[in-house]
Amino acid sequence: MSRLQAAVGPSRRGFVGRLRSLLAGGAVDEAAWDAAEETLIAADVGPALAARLVVAARRRGELAPGEAIRTELLALLLPGDRVWRPMPAVAGQPQPVLVIGVNGTGKTTTIAKLAGRLRGEGATVLLAAADTFRAAAIDQLRAWAERLELPIVAHAPGADPGAVVFDALDAASARGVDVVIADTAGRLHTKRDLMDELAKIRRVIERRLPGSRPDVLLVLDATTGQNGLHQARVFHESVGVSGIIVTKLDSSSRAGIVFAIEDELHLPVLFLGIGEAIDDLEPFDPDAFVAALFEDRG
Ligand code: GDP
């Protein structure tokens, strides 16, 4: 069994198993389709999308009902493999990657996983501790930098996050580092402040690296379900997100949120967090994901 299959086991045995038994066989009655819709809603697919999926699946007379749902779920996801590789828009300069998201979603851990992965692919990485609002966030990022033996730029708690990013880009430029991954603050209750802060970081990047196009990766915790989707909408409207990382999929039995994210936000899910260890980050592949949900062995 693949690691992805193991991670989505609770969803596969849970809502997907239920869908498959409700829609088993050729003749599925109205009550079973209703129950299938409820099952999708309970798996965080969301009510509107669940209704649409069932209507679309029922129209697929050529397929058995269970297969029709699986096909419609896969069709929702943006097609193909999406390989994320931070590419500098300005040749010879570091590519800035801003990682945003609410505290506790797994942002810091994900930064470490991403940095480890990029390094494994031969890139050099520098971390920037731009969540200066919480001393603990700086300490945590430092601890990861030490463990992974990565350079880090950090200022004192309360410092200007823009200044941290500026210094990090300077340091990366001077050392010929390929990628700067910046941790950013994740308090959402003050949307205005957050927007201002992230917008300011973007301006600082534009000043230091004119013409660069930072990657903005949003970290979403799968266990927060539709609430997480709401957070994502706010972040995307405020700062513009280029891709999503869904964490803690292994701790959730409601993997339906992944479909809701792509359908609602029209943003690609780039990685899945499937555990707490450094290599528990899977590039998102729609076919592999749907297969892991529907098939017991691969
Ligand atoms: P931050 O506050 O957003 O920076 O979150 P942290 O990186 O500190 O992570 C919060 C908790 O979630 C930690 O205990 C992490 O080990 C855990 N975590 C992060 N990603 C995953 C994941 O993909 N799966 C699981 N099971 N736990 C995760």
Structural summary, described in words:
- The chain has 298 residues and is of the alpha/beta class.
- It contains 12 helices and 8 strands.
- An 8-stranded mixed sheet has the order 3-2-4-1-5-6-7-8, sandwiched between helices.
- A hairpin with a 7-residue loop joins strand 7 (269-273) and strand 8.
- It starts with a helix and ends with a helix.
Quick tags:
298 residues; alpha/beta; 8-stranded mixed beta sheet; 12 helices; elongated; binds guanosine-5'-diphosphate
Taken as a percent bin, the fraction of beta residues is 5-15%
Unique bound compounds: guanosine-5'-diphosphate
* Beta-strand segment tally: 8
Average pLDDT level: 93
Question: Biggest β-sheet: count, sense, barrel?
Answer: 8 strands, mixed
Summarize the structure in short.
The chain has 298 residues and is of the alpha/beta class. The chain is 51% helix and 13% strand. It has helices at 3-7, 9-22, 30-42, 47-59, 65-76, 107-120, 135-148, 161-175, 191-208, 225-239, 257-265, 286-294, and strands at 95-100, 125-130, 152-153, 179-184, 215-221, 243-247, 269-273, 281-283.
Secondary structure topology:
Blueprint: H1 3-7, H2 9-22, H3 30-42, H4 47-59, H5 65-76, E1 95-100, H6 107-120, E2 125-130, H7 135-148, E3 152-153, H8 161-175, E4 179-184, H9 191-208, E5 215-221, H10 225-239, E6 243-247, H11 257-265, E7 269-273, E8 281-283, H12 286-294
Parallel strand pairs: 1-4, 1-5, 2-3, 2-4, 5-6, 6-7
Antiparallel strand pairs: 7-8
